Amino acid sequence: MKSGRLVPLLFLAPALFLFGLLTIYPLVRVFLLSFFYTEYGFSGASFVGLENYAALLGDSFFRIATWNTIFFTVTATASEVGLGLLLALLVSKRFPGRFIVIPTLVAPFVLSTMVVTAIWRAWFHYDFGFLNNVLRAGGLPPVAWLFDPDIAIFSLVLVDVWQTVPLTFLILLAGLQSIQPEIYEAARMDGAGPRQILLRITIPLLIPHILLASLLRSIDSFKIFDKVYALTGGGPGQATETLSMYVYRLGFQFFDVGMASAAAVIMIVIAGALAALYAVRIMKGESHAG
């Protein structure tokens, strides 16, 4: 019996070792560093307790980065889940050319972020970009997509939506395909119309998939760094400065590793709270379904 119980642990040991080395250890180290003033690590560090956290809460740059991150997360997640649901509803029915439409819709998601940002940087170009050429053709003035403080963050949302709507689309399409056709047939026999079927059957049955898509996108959007770094660098001014960019600047440009660690801990706590909230909602939905 004992040897039988040890065998699964032996198979899990390499994965547990890597998880501890690559996940648990960095998290613990970052948490401990957040209580010190240091430019690199624990060597020569001085303990400051909660001063790093207090300094962050009093830093206007941190508050702006937090607001930008929350705004981007909410706007991008709502747009991606909403558009993904719309596309899934449109494509769920069989029609000629469906086998071509679905791969075309998914194509942006398989591109690397650097390729995506290179494409959109060209499209956003003020003088020669595709988007401004379309505006000029329609008799409208060009837009400084990445250099107008009031528009720059929406431009980042647009890029993120273009690249990651395919993910929410696939999740919700899979959810639609899992709904039994007999449910729709029974609803039609009872006299339900398309709108009633959508609002009273399809959407309620898709709630777990919508929550899953929202969880994945909100966590990924909350920690966005690559698109901001490649397209705006956090500018103009601080219009697109996110928490990830803020942590990067503190740690790798100003070498204030202690405060950067404190900001990272706050990010981890917020992302963990989001994940826990969605997980509870999903489990409640599954328990009710059961």
From TrEMBL:
Residues 66-278 form the ABC transmembrane type-1 domain. It is a multi-pass membrane protein. InterPro entries: ABC_transporter_permease (IPR051393), MetI-like (IPR000515), MetI-like_sf (IPR035906). It is found in: Cell membrane. One of its GO terms (biological process) is transmembrane transport. It comes from the Bacteria. Pfam families: BPD_transp_1 (PF00528). The keyword Transcription does not apply. Belongs to the binding-protein-dependent transport system permease family. This is Sugar ABC transporter permease. It comes from Rhodobium orientis.
